[in-house]
Specification:
One of its GO terms (biological process) is nucleotide-excision repair. The chain has 937 residues and is an alpha/beta fold. Among the domains are: 186 residues, 3-Layer(aba) Sandwich (Rossmann fold); 122 residues, 2-Layer Sandwich (Ribulose 1,5 Bisphosphate Carboxylase/Oxygenase), CATH 3.30.190.20; 102 residues, ABC transporter ATPase domain-like (Helicase, Ruva Protein, domain 3, Orthogonal Bundle); 124 residues, P-loop containing nucleotide triphosphate hydrolases (Rossmann fold). It contains 34 helices and 32 strands. The chain has a 6-stranded mixed beta sheet with strand order 5-18-19-3-20-21, with helices on both faces. The chain has a 6-stranded antiparallel beta sheet with strand order 9-8-10-7-11-12. A hairpin with a 3-residue loop joins strand 8 and strand 9. Helix 6 packs across helix 8. The relative contact order is 0.10.
Length: 937
Amino acid sequence: MSESKIQVETEPSRSLSPIIIKGARVHNLKNVDVTLPRNKMTVVTGVSGSGKSSLAFDTIYAEGQRRYVESLSSYARQFLERMDKPDVDFMQGISPAMAIQQKNTTYNPRSTVGTTTEIYDYMRLLFARVGKTISPVSGEPVKKDTPQTVVADMLDRYEEKQRFYVLFPVSMEKNKKMREEVAIFQQKGFNRILLPEEQMVDLGRDEVNLKKYHPGEVRMVVDRLAIKKDDDEFRSRMVDSVETALLEGNGRCYIKLHKGEELMFSERFERDGIDFTEPTPQMFSFNNPFGACRSCEGFGRVQGIDEDKVVPDPELSIRGGAIAPFNSPKFNHNLKLLVKVAARYSLPIDEPYHSLSKDVKNILWYGKDEYPGIHSVFQQVRSEFYKVHMRVFYSRYRGYSRCPECDGYRVRKDALYVKIADMHIGQISEMTIGHARKFFDDLELTEYEMDVGGQILYEIRKRLRYLDEVGLHYITLNRLTNTLSGGEAQRINLANALGSSLIGSLYVLDEPTIGLHPRDNDRLIRILKSLRDIGNTVLVVEHDPEMIRSADHVVDIGPFAGNHGGEVSFSGSYEDLLGSKTLTGKYLSGRKSIPVPEKRRKGRGKEILLEGASEHNLKNVNIRMPLGKLVCVTGVSGSGKSTLIHRTLYAAIMKELGVYNEKVGRYRSMKGLQHIDGAEMVDQTPIGRSSRSNPATYTKSFDGIRDLFSKTRESRIMGYTSGHFSFNVPGGRCETCQGEGVQTIEMQFLADIELPCEACGGTRYRKDLLSVRYRGKNIHDVLEMSVSEALEFFVDEKQIVNRLQVLEDVGLGYLKLGQSGTTLSGGEAQRVKLARYLSRTEKDHMLYFFDEPTTGLHFEDIARLLDSFNRLIDRGHSVIIIEHNLDVIKSADWVIDIGPEGGFGGGTIVCEGTPEEVASHKESLTGRFLKPLLLPE
């Protein structure tokens, strides 16, 4: 009794033993000791570069992953010796770990939100099991008949004593005359034929000329019967007769009523003379050759005519000249034909093109009656390609368009005949997550359908609920994964983790609030708490005040960045943090804050005016962007900020400047371009295209460093030039890893592992080149320096210092000069680019676009970032920022709030003006959170 009691008491205490780290020295961590509670939500915070990621990801997660690999096969374990073990004295309580980072590493053009979250895979299963194939001819369900269902159908349809024949068709074999075919059936015992007009022929007695009949008109009689409702003998006889007819008729059987209609039944999957394919999960997969559309190979788009070029302004009506090719003299007669057809069928050709229904647009593109359609016009143009002007005309409208065979749904055409609740799988994939959740929640299945598809439906509903709750309700299921932002990709991974329902795991998240409006933060926090409540330990690297406030435990790393950080400044509860002396505690308690500007800039009195923006969910938006100011574009996730600023305004400006070849969002007109000399998009894409790109090469400071090394005495003796110190070209670099410093090991079913190069030990250079030293340091030692250290080391080299100082100014002094660009977070990459633009000295007036530049920034770093923006504006430039951070919004000169909701509920300008004007606007969700900061009651 006592033993069992002890066991009950010790088991929970063992399972809830804390995570203990002692002597962690990864990167800049200074022998850190920290204890984290198990099955709780812990937030790790601190200034950028203080060592948060080094503790959370490079120490705790890395050890969790290493221990997991250790438990796997011998194949996986053979790489353990080469996997770097975190530099730590002692670690205890580490669970199998999963990292959910704010990086979108998917480049596959076939990957969609639906496939990534497995929702599409479950939908394929559901359609294969409970979907009904609907004939496109009659609109009736397609089903296979059996002798039993034929009998049941006849008894249900017709009254007692209704006479009928059971028949099967005479199918002709190749090179065989009908007389020979009939003779074969006669040998089998079939002696009667039913000809058209119910003419019965007895093959034993009657002479008939079969030549004048088509084989499809000749029916062989199996039996003659009359309906008997409650007669088992009748049922048995009819089942035998129908079974014989189906066997001899190659799966087809006809029932001809006496002096009445003829019905066809088939044990094949066919209807209305069409053979349909029976649904299977592979049939609905656009990533499988069996299910992918033959024309577009599952991509949904083909090279052809671009609708946006044919109809450049969807605000115009058809009569008003919306169809650009019809405005030319050669094709103007097509418009006249269209007007005639429109009058005949009452088509709304005086309404804006964008408001036309799909059926009307189909007539415009594919034609009706004498009007040939837009596609036919371009086919005519192609037939005259021997004329130069016709080729030029065609190229003007060429682009990628929806695949005409599958209508952009990616799957084979007959997969679209299978429907659930009158919707095929392509139509459901075009729904937003919010709409899809409502569709599946409202979906009612029969008892049989619930038996075969109930569990599948449960899985779909569960995953959609999680995606909706993490704030992704506005994203469509067919959205390409490679178009998602880092924050969106992270929240999808978080929803996947919830869907897997694992327990006893360690989840490490990297700023999950990125890209979220303050309105949605509480929903995300609830999700993380539910992950904790089912028995997991949640470790979050975060700066958001709301997230820190909701944590069970807070660890503040600091006190500053780089060599001045790497210590645990605080570890405890949120309440205790408020009273601490750390920077985070001072900001959260209000003892320190980012001040509201004393006055707003008046700007240059010039502006860029964009009218009629209508891409995606934008609803004919007109915006004015004042120049010479800090302009902030705000709104909830999915409201249309990126569509308006990235895809429309920036793309339109670059198109006008002649340096942009990609698709531009739809808009009517743009004015004021003469007031700027150029535009730059400072986004979160990686710096450079390869892993060799780093802060030193990107800021051009590495050119000066290589020159210094080439001028040393050893270099002159050995004949080394500055080119020998480049790891991008052959010469002095290690050719085994080609200057990468690492080699990638493919782990087949696991994620690839990057290991230090065995030849150079990760230094990137040949040994003889590393013997060249400048002030006691070789080129590898210099690349291992942080920006702050390099500024002290090269203090006398003005050219190098000038290029590196701007990195220090934007808060990136902790970055290593040689740190691979692919390892930088989105926010760090963006600030490296900002530093490069700050180092410019030209006098041009540039318009700079920033997309959430506060990613990864502590309150203290945001203050420095705002100083950098002010420096750009003081030099005569203009800055436009897409941002959710309230400290940045309150510091702006002009705010444009888009919304009010995301997806279809957004796409309008809620309000615009100074931050104070937005804060006092009743309809603005941003204003609601801004008001306590600017207009305290």
